[in-house]
Design brief:
Length: 512
Amino acid sequence: MRFWQQNPFVVIGLLVMGTLLLADVWGNGFGLAAATGGLALVGGVLGWLLQQRGWYVVAVGALLCAAVAGLYGIAYHTRPDNVMHLGEDVLSAPLTMQAEQTRELRKTRFAYYTWVQLHTRLADGTWQPLSGEVVAYLPRAAGQQPDDWLVGSRWVMTGRLTALPDTNGYQQYLHRKGITHKLQVRSFQSLPGGGMMLPFARTQNKLAHKLDDVLPAEVAPLGRALLLGQQSDLNRELREQFALSGVAHILALSGHHLSMLALLVGWLLRFLPMGKWLWPQRVLILGLMIFYAAVTGFSPSVVRAVFMAAALMLGYSLLRPVSMVNVIAFCFTVQVLTDVRLLYSMSLQLSYAAVFGLVTLGDALNRLFAPRYWLVRHGWGLIAASLAAQVATLPLVLLHFGDFPLYFLLANLVLLPLLVLLMPVGLALLLFFWLPGVGEVLAWCFTQGIVFMQAFTVWVASLPGTGALQLHLTEPQAWLLALALAAGTAVLWRWIQRRQTGQMPVLAGAVV
């Protein structure tokens, strides 16, 4: 019970997630009412179990669940002018629409594609309101990527809208994100101005071009993916090799990148007079982290890291005891409440699962075995972190991808320390590429690290048995596996704290 009392946001996060899941199962009407009443009752029971004021928890739980249910209804309620309500007579002919780009441009063998937010459509000579987000496919010309297609740019597009059938996993994922149609673009023309994200997208594009200038062509795509989150030029074979090796998380921007940025800026601030003032230093570091998150597109994993950094800085500045589990649950609740559709984002799911596994199971494994020697201790720390992250994300990996990398431990033991050394060099390259001599040295060091990373990943992916373990889970099976792993971690923690060997069979049974 002490765990729940010290981490109240874990209870709140579970209530929020349960409300959204029940609302998704039952839909807008009965489902929202049932989720609100049922989870308020759960909150009251938890309050009674924790010997708190039960009626107070019931009231707060009811208000919270009602607010979440309302946010769910707002997010998935379609306006009368939504693209979902266009009739077949309208969809049968090409439409001219104004839209704003919301995702980075990606490419396939025959076309580019991105997500756009519709604003208006041309009907009877006038622009009429049109809402909704769609997947837009653009024809590829001469194999070159249009540089003007940036997040936040606005366009007049002519093309044909067709409904996405809710048949396979990716299309179901799009439906849960509120995307029900795709647009085959025949012609397009840019509009002046742009959205709030356009200046940051232009900054990202300029930095990407600078990396192309200072890095060899064979390593530039991976360098842009590691530093700026641009994965559009990564070939499919390289992505599959990273996935088979169990290090696909390296390609996704996460808290590791922001922690390296914070360490680099903190080290540079030591040479300035303000380096001894904690508050200005923390505000500056947090501001740079937010700017870096904006430049890299505000991916859910990066936003999670920014929220956690802000919460930790606030707690330490106020000299309050900080529980990492409580901070994770608080950030999850806040981030999901900003956009309830993020609950179905694979990036958000994997990010929170990995960091939660590092804090709980990773810490438990480190306490289970504490070597005396520095090298062995840090080596075991890497093994524990890799095991914890892989175990915590296992249900999601098997649910979304169905492949389990057999050599993940070997790959992570080599590439994670390399990434720790490589990221400060890459971030310093983004800051100081213009300095003569310094930029060349940083570019050479970063290039050698990228070359080794690619070669080692290809070697691991070619080992016998790689990709042999394939197991696709359904959503109920993934939930059962996640509950079993959580129970096993809880029993392991209890055994570590009390050293009661009689509970080890319970641990084994929970994992099985």
